[in-house]
Amino acid sequence: MARSDITGKRRMKAHNVSHSNIKTKRWQHVNVQRRRLWVPELGRRVTLDLTTSDLRTIDKIGLLAFARRHGVQL
Q1: Structural domain includes residue 57
Q2: Contact 69/25 with Cβ under 8 angstroms?
Q3: What pLDDT band is residue 1 in, cutting at 50, 70 and 90?
Q4: Residue 4 resides in a domain
Q5: What is the CATH number of the domain that holds 47?
Q6: 3 state DSSP class of 53
Q7: How far is CA 61 from the centre of its chain?
Q8: What is the pLDDT of residue 9?
Q9: DSSP strands (E only) in the chain
Q10: Domain range for residue 28?
Q11: Residue 74 domain-assigned (yes or no)
Q12: Which of 29, 27, 28, 25 is nearest to 2 (CA)?
């Protein structure tokens, strides 16, 4: 199953709603990407499965700060 390694985000249940308002169950999948990220504080690359929203936040605050915010050790 597609899941973010740091935040734990995964697919959610949702409904397809027809014109006659009949609701059928479906899944909403998160956009999970596998990325190799350079961590200058550790001096090495780390391979993680992250959502695209995670990647945008990592660009702003950095990988270690983002992992610390979510209580994850790299």
Answers
A1: yes
A2: no
A3: confident
A4: no
A5: 2.30.170.40
A6: helix
A7: 16
A8: 95
A9: 12-17, 23-28, 32-39, 44-51
A10: 12-69
A11: no
A12: 29
- Indicate the residue type of 57: T
Query: Which backbone phi and psi does 38 adopt, to 5 degrees?
Result: -85, 130
- Model pTM? 0.82
CA–CA dist 38, 53 (Å, integer): 18
Counting the structural domains of the chain, the total is 1
Q: Residue 24 has which token pair?
A: 């059928």
pLDDT computed for residue 24 by the predictor: 98
Which pair of structure tokens corresponds to residue 47?
């391979």
68: left (phi over 0), alpha (psi -120 to 50) or beta: alpha
Quote the pLDDT of residue 5.
Answer: 95
Is 19 domain-assigned? yes
Token pair of 5 as six digits: 């390694």
